[in-house]
Give the backbone structure.
Amino acid sequence: MGIKYTPWRMRYIKRGENSAEGCVFCAMATADGTDDAERLVLYRGQYCFVVMNLYPYNTAHLMVVPYLHVADLATLDRAVANELFYITQQSVGILQTEYAPHGFNLGMNLGRVAGAGIADHLHMHIVPRWNGDTNFMPVIGDTKLIPEALDETYARLRPHFAALSSASAQSAQPDDAPRTASE
């Protein structure tokens, strides 16, 4: 297998997935926002936030994540579900403007057997796709090439998400408050 050096990823590898720290999405959800750039959080809505994937399938691979720690889509509160899809729409529009992809893969992996890396906290993946973005490297070389560093992608996307105000996101949403798991 060929070796491609990506030293910028070492800080994420060292951070690791430590179960003692709890859910990585919940840690982002409860953070005060001062380290959003380090965590690659691009936007915070009322019920959901947008974060870049640390291990992207493609450049600008985003995730829309509810603040509420929930795995079951069927029990997701309507207000949260509405905002999740609204922010997904807005994110696709931002990616179309900034990157002009030829298509998108959108989806959720619900449950470990469905491929969820973080199975206990559902999230929507947004993966931009371009003609020719798949080549021989993953098949023959067992190596995926991402042509842009995460910090560069963040710098390109952050101004677009800064312009996406919480007020405009909520104008399309019902005023229902999300229910907790105990309700």
